[in-house]
Write a structure and sequence with these properties.
- The protein has about 100 residues and is mainly alpha-helical.
- The chain has 2 domains: about 35 residues; about 55 residues, Molybdopterin biosynthesis moea protein, domain 2, CATH 3.90.105.
- Helix content is about 60%, strand content about 10%.
């Protein structure tokens, strides 16, 4: 990986403060690299996150999931996850 070699080559230990800054920068670069590899269609949200996005209560989201069944979801063990694309589709249907 080019970016890893470049970052590590530029890292020289001179002081603790410099090392801390370099580690922070490396962490930022790693986070950016991880985020750039994600596909927006694979992003998932919890019920709480969807409620926050929609500015409604958790119970309202649960009603759409379990009672109205107009918001598709995935079960991961006992947890419920809502895909980003399903949420966008739900919002486009609800706005019409």
């Amino acid at each position: 990986m080019k970016w890893k070699k470049t970052v590590l080559a530029n890292m020289t230990s001179s002081s603790t403060a410099d090392e801390d800054l370099k580690l922070e920068r490396l962490a930022e670069l790693i986070a950016v690299k991880i985020d750039s590899g994600r596909s927006p269609g694979l992003m998932v949200h919890t019920i709480e996150e969807v409620a926050e996005i929609l500015k409604v209560s958790r119970r309202t989201v649960e009603g759409h999931l379990y009672e109205k069944r107009d918001l598709p979801y995935l079960k991961v063990g006992r947890e419920v996850r809502i895909r980003e694309k399903d949420l966008k589709s739900f919002l486009s249907r609800a706005s019409c």
